[in-house]
């Protein structure tokens, strides 16, 4: 029976151009596209207003990091909106969002350090403590790993672990575009001879390595920075990561496997991208509003280390006797 089934030619075509989408929109489509575009515009306007507030009200050493971190959701919203209207540009809009978020991973680590007062203040406050490295996404299953002394070298390695992702992700993106122009790169080509099957897993490993230092630093500073709402800020950062990377990857895999049905003029893969972008616009719009509440405010400075009370002390890992007995925390 499957041999007698006819397939619409458009299901094998490239994604439609923008003018074809506009000409085929019905009333529901017009309303949906208008609402999602409105959300993307509002997200960017909210972000611009927030940048203006941060530029005027926030200390200079924290401005750059806060602006970068706050821009994650609005940038992804804007890129998703462009990909929704111009499906043939989806690869480029997704790459732009991924490159921006790679920088955000590093900037969030910098932000946590700057909230304490910078590198020197962090080393002064935390020099007598140790870092717990048995955290996700790399070593959450190894609770008895030894704790690491906090030194300039360990702080440099933490920064390097996240910074490499910001640099190499952009480098791999440029390489992918170059290979694409030569016909050697196709996101849907999972053959062993294709470039995508080698580049994407490599980027995945770099992502895991970059997320590890951020998780280590958060676990160490979550108590100290509780008054600065670091826990909900970290939750929003993680939510952007899951939605923009994991959710999109799952939808795209389902589309490439044909699980998502073809609906002319969209092929199965193009329709999967469309669904992912529409979901991201809505989700990132909500995250933009939430992060505005978290970041667009002024905080009292952290007390000096000598005056830290029980609510501002850094998280101290278990001692060696606990580690030896297997009672890791």
What does it look like?
By secondary structure, the protein is mainly α. Helix content is 65%, strand content 1%. The chain contains eleven helices and two strands. It has a two-stranded antiparallel sheet. Helix 7 (152-181) runs antiparallel to helix 8. It is globular, with a radius of gyration of 23 Å. It starts with 17 loop residues before the first helix and ends in a 5-residue tail after the last helix.
Number of strands: 2
- Describe the strand arrangement of the main beta sheet, using strand numbers: 1-2
Distance between termini? 59 Å
Q: pLDDT below 50 for ≥5 consecutive residues: which ranges?
A: 306-312, 320-329
Q: Helical content, roughly?
A: 55-70%
Order of helices and strands: HHHHHHEEHHHHH
Give the count of helical stretches.
Answer: 11
**Global outline:** globular
Q: Which structural class fits the helix and strand makeup? A: mainly alpha
Radius of gyration: 23 Å
- Major sheet, described briefly? 2 strands, antiparallel
What value does the average pLDDT take?
Answer: 82
Range of strand content: under 5%
Which key features would you list for this structure?
mainly alpha; two-stranded antiparallel ribbon; 11 helices; 2 strands; globular; disordered C terminus
